[in-house]
């Protein structure tokens, strides 16, 4: 979230010599003096109280221009801008008006409800400290009852939450050692940003504890050196390459290049180091300066150890600053004069009151944190933590009967989001009984962080409490914490679960889902035009991805969810212990994998041998190397059910030698700590024998079905390989003279698979695969003008369907003469000398029948609709749902995350 820090810093140039401010504070109507009124210089520790005659005096070294604030309990606060140009002493008089709208503390507290409490939690996150800030537990708002909230709906622009306070906010910051009075003028929160400003007075906390005082001093120094004010000072002093910061110019994104997560690879590609004198600075003539920024700057806080997900090999904080107008103004001390001139993101946008220092704070100048920085860089726990992943799974309904299909949907959670496309693409799902035995397993692909599958339960499955477990092969490097486990209830036929009704409390940042629908009848079922409108807490449309389940409201009992996505997100806060270390002996799977051991037939063979792996009749194949002990690992195969995999070591004449032994993949041990649902069972009063299975329709004999011809060619469907990363059509290709021009505009190929080596990209010409051949040999026989289209599969997500053949990417070419309806090949695999192994692939399952045949009667079933990959467009989701006749009500369950990462879960019920 970008944070516009509107703190109204209106300070001029530096503190220079001792000066004095004196004056009086009086009541407006009577003119009587107000004793004990507070008068202070905004955003400083410089202040005083009035005496019995309403007089005050403040001494210090002031800038040319300051804001002086006068306040008194029950009266309106007054702010005056004071100029010290060519002056040493200034006289200022205040007249304060009585505030008749003040409410007592008791009256304010009486108005509080759960909605106010939710808004207060949001307020604290934006105003005091982020939830993951270590300072959060050390800063406290002492009088929260004075804060009022209002949702504002402007005529133009999005709605927002606004906060106000009739009295100054009393804050105790034990992290930096200050008590703070904050006179809030404006506070606004939108979904994509926030801002607040007001007048602030800091009072250092008195302490006789030397250790506590030293802690405060160190914390103040640390926060100053990583602050925007210090960065501005460095830019003014022409020291952009200081020991505290390095500043880079973030270049505009290049269409023909994909960003990596490696800092060294990005240097001079997407970012360029800013050298001295490259940032223009100009004096404004009034003691202030203007700093010119061209584009977006990436700032590295070299002295601030921080866990960032932007680079995999950088362990300090990173910020980005951008001036929409191309410049911003500061005083000699680096104070930003107009905060609206600068947009902050990254670490600098995290600054809240917990870390903001008074403007008169002066650093000692000898603060260093190299020791802490080195500790972060060398910590295995921090390096490994960003490589962790965990699955979250849910099912189409809360319980099942023997013989049913349990449709499974889910999402992957990542400690390091930038590593998502380099981590696992295979998920294992186990069904575990009360005896801690795995009685059923399935293997599902992970596609763009999403999981979709199905478990066909045996008709002989014993009713009872089971556990569904989800894990990846890679998970086993990190222990049980990274495995997903949830209760899985199988009921006895004729019974249903019964649970006590529990009132669920709405959570902060609640998403509203508003359903709307219309029904129309057809011969075999009813058609529901369903519309779901998603709104944020400000009633603005919000986009997100979610899993959608519609169940029959009369036949399915809803249970309290024990594995909500919101709860699973707590895993992101569970870091590895500081002493964690691992050899990472369980590799990442990019598809179906085989591991084995090569046994040489004579001692003259080299220690490391190439192993060729072939699926079927050359549907997929690749080559991997053994280690010095003969062990090998091949991953990236992509198929369903079981395939015949041929494996052999091949010499330079392509003759097999030696033998191989295939080893089973390790499975994690079954934990004894399994969750269970709390329920009782009760008989079903009206027996419903219908189960959730795919198919099972009744043919309508009188229905005449029209013949539908397939008009779309295989080439137009990309041979069922999915959407390419980039593509170029005939019109553009005819303008290209050489293939260098084509690929210069399209993309470059790179390997982003963690720990894997790749060969050249594979070429598919008119549906024919040409793997392990230099693409230049094939392209040399063609010219761009002869090509109908060229499509590239270069990222890990789009190329994964090609298996091992597509490791280095895929170039799909369709010539003007090549309109074939399917791939053709005269290649035949000679398996002589190879050992053949049956290897299970991804579990094949019956998809949920969202589009039943229109000529067949749709029977009533518990699950009406299931969509594990639903997403909104401009806050709306639309679907045509085929509803069996006889269904009177539908329960809608949506669960997912918004585009900015907020989890939501909703249960709705509609009557038909």
UniProtKB/TrEMBL annotation:
The keyword Signal applies. This is Carboxypeptidase-like regulatory domain-containing protein. It comes from Algoriphagus aquatilis. The keyword Transcription does not apply. Residues 1-18 form the signal peptide. Pfam families: CarbopepD_reg_2. Keywords: Signal. SUPFAM superfamilies: Carboxypeptidase regulatory domain-like, Porins.
């Amino acid at each position: 979230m970008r944070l516009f820090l509107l703190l109204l810093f209106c300070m001029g140039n530096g503190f220079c010599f001792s000066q004095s401010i004196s004056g009086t504070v009086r009541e407006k109507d009577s003119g009587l003096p107000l004793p004990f009124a507070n008068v202070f210089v905004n955003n400083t520790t410089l202040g005083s109280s009035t005496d019995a005659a309403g007089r005050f005096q403040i001494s210090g070294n002031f800038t040319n221009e300051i804001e002086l604030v006068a306040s008194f309990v029950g009266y309106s606060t007054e702010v005056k801008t004071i100029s010290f140009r060519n002056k040493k002493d200034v006289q200022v008089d205040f007249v304060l008006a009585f505030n008749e709208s003040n409410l007592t503390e008791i009256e304010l507290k009486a108005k509080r409800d759960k909605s106010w409490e939710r808004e207060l939690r949001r307020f604290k996150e934006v105003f005091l400290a982020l939830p993951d800030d270590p300072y959060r537990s050390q800063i406290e708002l002492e009088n929260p009852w004075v804060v009022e909230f209002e949702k504002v709906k402007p005529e133009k622009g999005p709605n927002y939450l606004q906060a106000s306070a009739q009295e100054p906010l009393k804050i105790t910051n034990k992290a930096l050692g200050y008590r703070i009075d904050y006179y809030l003028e404006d506070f606004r929160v939108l979904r994509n940003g926030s801002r607040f400003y007001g007048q602030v007075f800091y009072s250092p906390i008195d302490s006789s504890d030397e250790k506590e005082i030293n802690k405060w001093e160190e914390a103040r120094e640390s926060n100053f050196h990583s602050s925007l004010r210090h960065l501005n000072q460095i830019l003014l002093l022409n020291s952009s390459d200081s020991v505290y910061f390095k500043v880079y110019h973030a270049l505009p994104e290049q269409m023909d290049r994909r960003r990596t997560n490696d800092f060294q690879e990005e240097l001079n590609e997407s970012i360029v180091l800013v050298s001295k004198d490259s940032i223009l600075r100009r004096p404004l003539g009034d003691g202030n300066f203007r700093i010119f920024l061209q584009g977006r700057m990436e700032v590295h806080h070299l002295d601030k150890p921080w866990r960032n997900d932007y680079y995999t090999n950088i362990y300090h904080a990173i910020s980005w600053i951008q001036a929409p107008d191309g410049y911003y103004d500061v005083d000699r001390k680096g104070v930003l004069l107009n905060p609206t001139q600068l947009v902050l993101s990254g670490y600098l946008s995290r600054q809240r009151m917990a870390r903001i220092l008074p403007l008169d704070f002066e650093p000692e100048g000898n603060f260093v944190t190299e020791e802490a920085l080195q500790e972060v860089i060398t910590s295995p726990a921090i390096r490994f933590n960003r490589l962790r992943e965990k699955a979250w799974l849910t099912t189409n309904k809360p319980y099942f009967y023997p013989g049913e299909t349990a449709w499974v949907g889910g999402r992957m959670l990542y400690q390091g989001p930038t590593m998502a496309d380099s981590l696992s693409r295979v998920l294992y799902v186990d069904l575990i009984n009360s005896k801690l035995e795995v009685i059923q397993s399935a293997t599902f692909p992970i596609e763009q962080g999403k999981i979709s599958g199905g478990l066909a339960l045996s008709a002989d499955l014993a009713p009872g409490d089971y556990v569904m477990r989800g894990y990846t092969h890679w998970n086993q490097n990190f222990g049980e914490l990274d495995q997903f486990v949830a209760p899985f209830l199988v009921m006895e036929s004729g019974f249903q679960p019964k649970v006590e009704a529990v009132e669920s409390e709405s959570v902060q940042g609640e998403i509203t889902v508003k359903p709307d629908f219309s029904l129309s009848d057809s011969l075999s079922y009813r058609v529901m035009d369903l519309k779901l409108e998603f709104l944020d807490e400000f009633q603005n449309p919000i986009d997100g991805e979610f899993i959608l389940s519609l169940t029959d409201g009369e036949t399915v009992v809803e249970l309290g969810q024990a594995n909500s996505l919101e709860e699973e997100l707590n895993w992101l806060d569970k870091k590895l212990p500081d002493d964690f270390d691992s050899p990472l002996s369980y590799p990442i799977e990019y598809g179906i994998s085989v591991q084995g051991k090569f046994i040489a037939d004579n001692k003259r063979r080299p220690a490391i041998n190439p192993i060729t792996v072939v699926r079927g009749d050359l549907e997929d194949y690749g080559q991997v190397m053994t280690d010095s002990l003969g062990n090998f690992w091949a991953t990236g195969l992509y198929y369903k059910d079981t395939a015949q995999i041929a494996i052999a070591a091949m010499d330079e004449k392509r003759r097999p030698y030696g033998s191989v032994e295939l080893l089973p993949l390790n499975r994690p041990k079954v934990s004894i700590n399994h969750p269970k649902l709390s329920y009782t069972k009760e008989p079903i009063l009206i027996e419903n024998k219908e189960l959730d299975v795919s198919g099972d329709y009744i043919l309508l004999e009188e229905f005449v079905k029209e013949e539908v011809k397939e008009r779309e060619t295989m080439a137009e469907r990309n041979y069922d390989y999915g959407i390419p990363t980039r593509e170029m059509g005939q019109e553009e290709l005819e303008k290209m003279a050489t293939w260098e021009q084509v690929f210069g505009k399209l993309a470059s190929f790179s390997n982003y698979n963690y720990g894997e080596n790749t060969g050249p990209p594979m070429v598919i010409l008119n549906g024919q695969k040409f793997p392990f051949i230099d693409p230049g040999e094939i392209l040399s026989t063609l010219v761009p003008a002869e090509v109908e289209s060229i499509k590239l599969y270069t990222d890990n997500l789009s190329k994964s369907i090609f298996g091992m053949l597509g490791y280095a990417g895929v170039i799909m070419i369709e010539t003007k003469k090549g309109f074939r309806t399917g791939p053709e090949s005269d290649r035949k695999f000679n398996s002589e000398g190879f050992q053949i192994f049956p290897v299970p692939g991804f579990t094949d399952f019956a998809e949920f029948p969202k589009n039943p045949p229109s000529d067949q009667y749709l029977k009533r079933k518990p699950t009406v609709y299931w969509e594990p990959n639903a997403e909104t467009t401009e806050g709306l989701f639309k679907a045509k749902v085929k509803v069996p006749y006889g269904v009177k009500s539908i329960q809608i369950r949506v669960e997912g995350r918004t585009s900015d990462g907020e989890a939501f879960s909703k249960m709705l019920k509609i009557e038909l």
